[in-house]
Amino acid sequence: MIAPARKAARRVARPATESAVYLDRELAGEIKPKAGVFIARLANGRSLGRYPDERQAMKAITAAARSERATS
């Protein structure tokens, strides 16, 4: 009798632990996934909120960084 083949263990697909967003050569902010949402934070530490996907978080960071750059 042949023994059934063992199934290979699969790794669970997870998003990266952190993503960085740059404007030119300057770090604009970071995105961290947490409990199904993405938390956007500027490089200076200011939190921009929680977003349902990474693209919206990236857009929020770039918009906030550009507005801060314009006022400086």
Question: What would the keywords be for this entry?
Answer:
72 residues, alpha+beta, four-stranded antiparallel beta sheet, 1 helix, 4 strands, 35% strand
Account of the 3D structure:
- The protein has one domain (19-71).
- The protein contains 1 helix and 4 strands.
- It has one helix spanning 54-71; strands at 19-23, 26-34, 37-42, 47-51.
- Strands 1-2-3-4 form a 4-stranded antiparallel β-sheet, covered by helices on one side.
- Strand 1 (19-23) and strand 2 form a beta hairpin.
Topology:
Blueprint (H helix, E strand, L loop, with lengths): L18 E5 L2 E9 L2 E6 L4 E5 L2 H18 L1
Antiparallel strand pairs: 1-2, 2-3, 3-4
Strand content: 25-35%
- What portion of residues is helical? 25-40%
Report strand order across the widest sheet. 1-2-3-4
Q: Regions with pLDDT < 50 over 5+ consecutive residues?
A: none
Described by the principal axes of the CA atoms, the overall outline is elongated
Order of helices and strands: EEEEH
- The mean pLDDT is 88
Report the structural category: alpha+beta
**Cα gyration radius (Å):** 19 Å
How many domain units?
A: 1
Helical segment count = 1
**Terminal residue distance:** 77 Å
The tally of beta strands, per DSSP, is 4
Main sheet record: 4 strands, antiparallel
Counting copies of identical and different chains, the oligomeric state is single chain
